[in-house]
Amino acid sequence: MTRERFIDLVRTEQEPLRRFLLGLCSGNASLADDIAQDALVRAYVASGSFLGLSKFSTWLFRIAYNCFIDHCRKSTLDTVSSESFEVQSVLSDDSTDDAFRYQQLYQALDRIPEKERAAIVLHYFEDHDIKEISSIMQIPSGTVKYLLSTGRNHLKDFLSL
Amino acid sequence: MNGKDNIEEFLREHKPQVKDDPTFLLETQRRMKQVEGIKAEVDRQRSHGRITLIVTLIIGIVIGAVATFIGYICPFSPDKENAGIFASVLLFMTTWKQFFFILLAALSVSLSLLLSRTRTQ
Fold it and tell me: What is this structure's pTM?
């Protein structure tokens, strides 16, 4: 696959991909974009192995998720999370109350395990169904349902809804 | 059930907002170009190393074959009195031919390995 062709394909997927990673990185936009770029480069290098058995977006999200997991293994996100809430508050164009809600959400997302966070972000922010999430995270559908359930419960506790 | 609906509603209403960044794809393309450059260089060096290895191996075989040919075609009578430098070399090769060929082969392999390693670094 040529670079131009790959960039064309990525152009439509970049926003969902960045949003997915922004959720995973608990609102840290610069880290999310860095991982997104890393994921895109990896995807480009491996583009010859994309056989079209799954959707291009699913394949791309799987690579991005693996990049995020690699990043988590290398370093803990605890050190950057405090910075991330500031970033998101600046990004929000809505009312102060809404900005506060985003802060709360990112703080809560940061406190739940990465797998629960990934399942929640993919399902509620990216509108992926259980089967797609299962394919992206490479886990059984039952585990995805379990992660969504426990993730929701954890978030409910942290968000006091 | 109500709690589940609340949290689902909250999450759907608060999707992360991605800031529009025109430099994102440019930076991605820049990284891709870098990776392409590294990949091309690695491929070039690998191919160069392979060619060097084959050429050195062929040279080694040719030299070995020539040496063997000379050793067998020109039988040497050990008349040291009349021997010139060429004859001395032939005498040496005839006397120590097994040792000489092994040494030549070892040198050839070492040289090819050394050259291919140096090129790929």
Answer: 0.68
